[in-house]
Write a sequence for this structure.
């Protein structure tokens, strides 16, 4: 009986893992463009709290979960400073251009939410 | 004894001939009638019966065609179906973009491959394990690989930009693409209407033939 329960539990866990890792789940895309274009942008950027790899040739396209994400940069005293919100929709791409010459970097949305200029939408 | 046998035989032969003639006479009127039907035109009743049968056979097909056409028209004018087609298209492009996105599996493979090449070149540049000519040979080999891997990752960059552009186009021109899909559906609807019209015309011709063939006696 214990063995059967163990097997069932294992199957459940494996199934959940497969479902979680399955591509094409509820995800969309974020396109981050940095200006001026550089071979490698050194400004640290974060989506929520995850640090992004340096952006190559001024453009990166990232697959992200659906929802509202915070684009952040390094703030004072080791804190993160939010620069704008990005709304990710299923199978859609939201483009945001980050002007990295300014301090702090500034977001320019391709499309902004009607009520909030600092919220980029697809 | 010799004279009795032929007499008996003669008697049996005449009986057999008589039976054969009787059978032929009985069968003759039917055969003559059949020959008459096969050689001449069908009677008006038979002709009407044949045409009516043909028409009745075509009616269920026509009804089926009408029902199928109605279904096709319903689906052709369904706006939700057009929207579902755009969603399907978006899903396809999205999956492709997912593979080549910067944090996608294929891009990560390219990054790992290039990191490995760079690490090997660094190791060879500082290492003393090999003779100078051997080291130069290995460095040349790794440099060739570096160029090829960079070219492959550049192709990935191009694919990424292309799929992202496609997804953007799908988003920004969603209404227009929806209209194009609806036009395509309407064209399909037109095709089935044309086909149905053709079927109806055929049925009408058959019906006309059937009615035209009815000739009451004395008219």
């Amino acid at each position: 009986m214990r063995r059967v329960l163990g097997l069932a539990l294992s199957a459940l866990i494996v199934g959940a893992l497969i479902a979680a890792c399955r591509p094409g789940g509820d995800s969309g895309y974020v396109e981050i463009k940095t200006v001026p274009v550089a071979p490698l942008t050194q400004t640290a950027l974060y989506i929520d709290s995850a640090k992004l790899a340096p952006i190559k040739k001024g453009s990166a396209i990232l697959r992200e979960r659906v929802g509202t994400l915070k684009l952040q940069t390094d703030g004072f005293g080791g804190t993160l400073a939010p620069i704008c919100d990005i709304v990710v929709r299923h199978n859609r791409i939201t483009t945001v251009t980050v002007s990295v010459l300014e301090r702090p970097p500034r977001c320019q949305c391709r499309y902004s939410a009607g009520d909030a200029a600092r919220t980029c939408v697809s | 004894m010799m004279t009795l046998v032929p007499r008996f035989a003669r008697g049996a032969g005449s009986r057999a001939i008589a039976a054969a003639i009787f059978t032929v006479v009985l069968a003759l009127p039917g055969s003559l009638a059949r020959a008459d039907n096969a050689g001449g035109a069908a009677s008006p009743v038979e002709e009407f019966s044949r045409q009516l049968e043909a028409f009745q056979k075509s009616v269920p097909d026509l009804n089926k065609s009408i029902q199928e056409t109605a279904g096709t028209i319903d689906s052709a004018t369904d706006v939700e179906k057009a929207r579902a087609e755009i969603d399907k298209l978006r899903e396809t492009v999205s999956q492709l973009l997912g593979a080549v996105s910067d944090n996608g599996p294929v891009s990560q493979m390219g990054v790992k491959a290039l990191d490995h090449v760079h690490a090997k070149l660094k190791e060879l540049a500082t290492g003393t394990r090999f003779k100078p000519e051997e080291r130069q040979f290995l460095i040349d080999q790794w440099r060739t690989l570096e160029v090829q891997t960079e070219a492959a990752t550049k192709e990935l960059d191009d694919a990424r930009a292309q799929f992202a552009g496609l997804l953007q186009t799908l988003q920004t021109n969603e209404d227009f693409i929806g209209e194009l899909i609806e036009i395509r559906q309407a064209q399909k609807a037109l095709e089935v209407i044309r086909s149905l019209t053709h079927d109806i015309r055929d049925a009408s011709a058959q019906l006309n033939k059937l009615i035209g063939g009815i000739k009451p006696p004395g008219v």
User: Anything to note?
Assistant: Chain A is about 15% helix and 50% strand.
